[in-house]
């Protein structure tokens, strides 16, 4: 459904060292993969795979021939495209191509490739801060790897899950996974993986936050640093210095942390690791703030924001924006308010509605502190409590409204109807069940949208209910019949395709959205949207 978005956004900023000609060529090749011409499909796929091998995205020069099934060609090409985007920090595009490849991986029963594809989806969702989606794919990866019995893959999957739980602020849960991962890596004597996972263990122990855990984190980070230096990987060792610095800062050893970070910056700049560079600048900003150097702190935080923004790391940028707010709120409240607003916007995009509601409470506290600063000395403690509570309720309502508007923009009015219904449900368990049902239903339908006719019996079976139960549930949540709801999703997909790729013939758009009868597609589009597909494309 998001395929055209990928093609439009492809290569403008993706390859700093690539020529414009290469960008245009890659763009064109990805378009050909969508088509049905076997000869052109094979040629385009081979050129793409040669390019991915040349840039070291793929680890072998795959080549396809006329005996290779079309589905296999697309499966491998889309999978390696998702890896390619992940490498270049284009996480949304990586997610989309991994989701294109997943059904074909399942169909082929290639369990190893399926695990790899799920892992890419997990990591890309994680980088965008979509932790619930990320953990879903990561756990599926771990389940497949356990069935395969490959200890190296199991250890890697455990490490990924630990990282997700760490980012979701559940370090105790993350600790269980990283402990098992390290145990397996030591059993198989995988030095490279031990270094990576020791660094992860250091971050987790630092997040737990007490003095004992930070001292232990320091030991893990040093172990990781020494292993990477022994392996001749100063670029990886620089990352370990950043992890080591977290523990040093927490223990109040600022000079040691600053020296370690300066060494790390020098190495990271050589290899162009912008994400780790951003983290180091954020750490140096924290040290400057804690040691009473606000100007230096502001410069370091702003540098971190620029780097996080450039690579699309929403989670990292939100943390840096929050640090800028804390730095500026006393002396420069107007500037602080700008960073607070950006932080709130980023947090809204990071979390689902449940975590967004938790965020609302935090935002309310921050905003209350800012507004109360002007008159705190004149107000009584009782009045302060009243204002804080009032601001909390206002921000909570505003945040919830913002989330609903985002859902309307990106998922359509049908999904808003489901969400509104859920928000009006008094019973918490029913609300959660309805939301999960809506998400699962949309996922199952989207997997079948390219089919000419979706079998409602199969759809109901996939939702573990009878067709009658499915119709009643969809009607209750959306006000539409199941067939009408599916048609609305097809039309939404058609609108996006027409908008994002106006050069594509309308009959191909219709076929891609599952309409076999072009005349029927025209009539239906005119009836529902008020204009013909051609008029709609022209107006856009």
Task: Describe the protein.
By secondary structure, this protein is mostly helical. Among the domains are: 1-108, no CATH class; 479-540, Homeodomain-like (Arc Repressor Mutant, subunit A, Orthogonal Bundle). It is built from 27 helices and no strands. The chain has helices at residues 3-9, 20-33, 38-54, 70-87, 91-108, 111-127, 131-148, 151-167, 171-187, 191-208, 211-230, 234-250, 254-271, 274-290, 294-311, 314-328, 333-350, 353-372, 381-411, 413-423, 428-446, 456-462, 467-478, 482-500, 506-512, 518-529, 533-539. α16 (314-328) runs antiparallel to α17. It is globular and about 70 Å long. 40% of the residues are buried. Mean pLDDT is 80; it is low at 1-19, 351-378 and 411-427.
SSE diagram, text form:
Elements: H1 3-9, H2 20-33, H3 38-54, H4 70-87, H5 91-108, H6 111-127, H7 131-148, H8 151-167, H9 171-187, H10 191-208, H11 211-230, H12 234-250, H13 254-271, H14 274-290, H15 294-311, H16 314-328, H17 333-350, H18 353-372, H19 381-411, H20 413-423, H21 428-446, H22 456-462, H23 467-478, H24 482-500, H25 506-512, H26 518-529, H27 533-539
Q: What's the shape?
A: globular
Radius of gyration: 25 Å
Number of beta-strand segments: 0
- Specify the biggest β-sheet: none
Distance between the termini: 19 Å
> What is the mean predicted local confidence, pLDDT?
80
Question: How many separate helices?
Answer: 27
Unreliable stretches covering 5 or more consecutive residues = 1-19, 351-378, 411-427
The SSE string, one letter per element, is HHHHHHHHHHHHHHHHHHHHHHHHHHH
Percent helix among the residues? over 70%
Strand content: under 5%
> What class, by secondary structure content?
mainly alpha
